[in-house]
Specification:
Blueprint lengths: L19 E5 L2 E2 L3 E7 L8 E3 L9 E3 L7 E8 L39 H9 L5 E7 L12 E14 L12 E8 L1 E4 L4 H4 L20
Antiparallel strand pairs: 1-2, 1-7, 3-6, 4-5, 6-9, 7-8, 8-9, 8-10
Amino acid sequence: MADDLIGARNRARIAGSGFTVFTWDNKPILFAQQIEHQSPTPVANVSPIHPMDEPYPVELITPQAATMGTLVLDLYELYGGQVWERLAGYLGGDPSGTSSVRNDSVIGSGKGPVDIVGVFNAVANTPNPIRIVKYIKPPAIRGKTMKPYTEEYHNCIIAAVADSETINVGKMEIIKQITVNYTYMTRGNRNPMRDRKSSNLGGFLPYDSSTTSFG
């Protein structure tokens, strides 16, 4: 019932309007028109175990492994720089992270990679794996709020850049698309399947020193 609201828990989630924010290496991805998330899929289909003398399968086997995930970023192009320059200093952005889009200033130096080959090279030479975080910020409802929560995408790489464009007399905004792949996902820095110990692998534990914070 409406009177039983705990923060925003019992209300439908609003996707846009500032309630969802994506960050790249802990800095907001600015001027994004849309970000599409295609979640990982199983590495194989469900396999039925069906002996000849049985009318129905006796068991269904599912894989305990998934493919990579995909994020597709549709970004508005601004004057004076490429869309990827707003993502990180190694892609041509302000390495100090102090620039802003205020008073007609433009994020990006205009001196970053000029095409997909340069982008590949810049990403390959990053000292640390790229990490994208989605922050979900529930609104205040009847004076109650939930804390923001997160979904983290690990070991990201830029897989493609759609830098093509068509210009005509009626063209207004210009959108460029960046495709990102990631190896695995956590929610609130938690993924039991990723973090579990496996005696068959000698007690393997993945190393990940990253932390999530939201201000």
